[in-house]
């Protein structure tokens, strides 16, 4: 039975352990608190109660059990959340019927195809003579055999149909094409492999499932890109996947810091050297969504992009996004190598020193602009000020801000007052809201009030308050109201009852509230809201009736409006 599987998953997976994969939590009495992953906030309002295996956010009024959390965190439906949690808990779900197998979720098929491809590429790397040069190359780059196996690096033979023929034994070509591994020829009903003659880097999601690949040419060819990435698919969104995060997340959470680099080899070399807090974007510049994912694990970012001008540009672009999200940021100055991979291979101690000496982001760009422009030249002064002052204005620590104002004034040989005047004119962007908060519609005041009143009535029944309302007042929760009216608790509403009561109980405990007073005031406010809403409806209808000269309707609506006004005044 599905119900027994769900309960077994809940029993095996403590909610605290699960949520901590997404949110930094701190103990607060019997609960744990943190910043909500579903909306942007500065003060923690997200609460986990291990004893009840429940979570709730007082900021966006969302809550539930582990299944609801994974649905929202992974943006999946219940069925997929069930599979994710079953896999994690080691619970075998009931085997599907032959008919269900035919209708199995397309995403699951794509996961299977990518996993099969990853294993195939890895097998070829270790067993095929054609891959010998690729394996030698990886070893010469300083990677141990164990590291190559841990990251499941592989080799795509320089053949148009090798992978296609292998995967076609178990999967349809349409699904393999959807997974981005083969390409359909124009005007022909045939395909060819996307990755050929390339070292393969599997890209995995937060749960370690292969969702795509990066392929690197062993020998550069004219008119052929050095790197080829999987296209976006139903399971691979480049803006949401971070290379290395699956392997790095535990260290990142423990250290409360993450090192951002540009390339896959930078990540792998860093991890091999013991710097397992290192990640890279997945074939694109870092996006706001990726940074929000990282914000679940750490508040401190260290940028370690390549030392060329493109790396500096990438640092500036990502920096602006990260500042909007409230990260603490430092930047590694790569003076002795072109990228982290090269510096680590020259000496682990050199990389450790570079990390230890990472500078404030303003310091980094201040030094770079002084190298680019002449501070003694009028145009140079203007350009340096243009580049640096917006960053100085973003600083919240007034002492640090004053330090850089003084430093900039001295370097440009201008009065500090002139720099301060310009800094104070800069309009700093407001913190960005998370994509989750844009996708998840926050509850309206009416929704919040109806849930709160019902939650209080479940925990602290008051028949006289229940009688003030009718089922329609509670919209989609009208069945809960009817159940309370009948003093019953139907099995199909058990989880709804539990969640409504949990949200209220947690708030009362957190804020030491008087539940009876809260019920009284919340019921009063809900009544006011419903009456006000009805008065607006009646007023609109009255206007239409007057325009159409419908005297009877005008009389009835006027009487109702007066009655509503009296009810409102009685509420105080």
From TrEMBL:
Alphabetically ordered keywords of this record: DNA replication, DNA-binding, DNA-directed RNA polymerase, Magnesium, Metal-binding, Nucleotidyltransferase, Primosome, Transcription, Transferase, Zinc, Zinc-finger
Domain of life the protein comes from: Bacteria
GO MF: DNA binding; DNA-directed RNA polymerase activity; zinc ion binding
Annotated CDD domains: TOPRIM_DnaG_primases
One annotated GO biological process: DNA replication, synthesis of primer
Transmembrane segments: none
ZnF CHC2-type span: 36-60
Cofactor(s) named in the record: Zn(2+)
Cofactor note: Binds 1 zinc ion per monomer.
Top-level EC class as recorded in UniProt: transferase
Thylakoid listed as a keyword: no
Documented EC number(s): 2.7.7.101
Domain Toprim as annotated: residue spans: 256-337
Catalytic activity: ssDNA + n NTP = ssDNA/pppN(pN)n-1 hybrid + (n-1) diphosphate
SUPFAM superfamilies xref list: DNA primase core, Zinc beta-ribbon
GO cellular component: a single term: cytoplasm
PANTHER family: DNA PRIMASE
Similarity comment: family membership: Belongs to the DnaG primase family.
Assembly information from the UniProt record: Monomer. Interacts with DnaB.
Alphabetical list of HAMAP family matching this protein: DNA_primase_DnaG (MF_00974)
Its biological purpose: RNA polymerase that catalyzes the synthesis of short RNA molecules used as primers for DNA polymerase during DNA replication.
UniProt free text on domains: Contains an N-terminal zinc-binding domain, a central core domain that contains the primase activity, and a C-terminal DnaB-binding domain.
Protein name, UniProt field: DNA primase
